[in-house]
Here is the input.
Amino acid sequence: MARIKLTVNGVRHSRDVEDRTLLVDLIRDELGLTGTHIGCDTTQCGCCTVHMNGRAVKSCTILAAQANGADILTIEGLAKDGELHPVQQAFTDCHALQCGFCTPGMIMAVVGLLKDNPRPSDEDIYHGLEGNLCRCTGYINIVKAVKQAAAQGADGH
Amino acid sequence: MFSLNYVRAKSLKHAAELLAQNPEAKLLAGGMTLLPTLKQRLARPSHLVDIAAIGALRAIRPSKGKLSIGAGVRHYEVASSPIVRQAIPALACLAGLIGDPQVRNMGTIGGSLANNDPAADYPAAALALNATIVTDRRRVKAGDYFQGLFATALEEGEIITRVLFPLPKQAAYEKFPHPASGYAMAGVFVAVTARGVRVAVTGAGPGVFRWNAAERALGRSLSPDAVAKLSLPADEMNEDIHASREYRANLVNVMTRRAVAKL
Here is the structure.
């Protein structure tokens, strides 16, 4: 067992978990933040994307122990004072989802993309979202939403 | 994943001690290959010794006319480093093609070289650029380091600390990625050095290798046409559901020409 201390969406938590516990399981099962989804559990689909110390990562392929002391941001931490993050708003406006399963991970990946590259070209968007799969294949509106968020100056912060 | 003990190493010395005390321990850096392996229960280490937080492994700096990259440096850091972009832009470009953004945010150069996946990108750069793999015990030239499928010169408990890249006059990397995994079905790194042209191929064979015939041809004439009529023996290439041996041999030729055209 290991005592894990980490900050999630600005709130400090401390939990005792088995050393083999995955970060996504800590986030979902221990902290009850079920917006972070487990899609493939094999590092391919990106549904479990969260930010660890400011970088987008796949929480199904990180041990909770590796995140000990880290600052984690999940989909639940994006909206501020009841107002959606510009990337969330753009996904709503552009109907950038069908079933919605990939959406939290997709949005966290887009926030990471815009942080590195606030004005991405179409190619940059395709390359930047390579780690996220939409099982409904609804990519056209997702790319549209990224462009809208970028045009409105969502720089990922 | 089987039950295991996680330990965060405080220093290189601490990590080496933990490995010596626990013969079934494994090093963990980014974990982008190791964790999926553990989840499939293909390995059962007693301990994971996490070396990601060791500061001594994290530097990118010029070193006596060479570029030194710490083993714990992550792919996105290599891809975005102004020092790497200035010294060896092809290496920064290669790092930006590994996996996907989330994988690049975790995976490390040391982890990639220690694993020596036959389709990984970094081995091609290390071999073509004649890099030196520096460990906590010695220095190993890339030509001696890579020993085929997932095999390297690393001994039990030996830890890569950094990689020294001599600066080429020109270099370029081109890969044909597998459309789902992003791994190289064929990746070719061409380096023009003071001692001649070096061509290293990943993804196509059982391990990274130099294409000597292409090196000689490009030494005479540094143009894509110089290798157009060369062919690799297909029986030495990999064959799987994604591509036949002949197709991979052809891809190597095409990637080589594209890399040379990019110089």
Remarks:
- Residues 2-77 of chain A form a domain with the Ubiquitin-like (UB roll) fold (CATH 3.10.20.30).
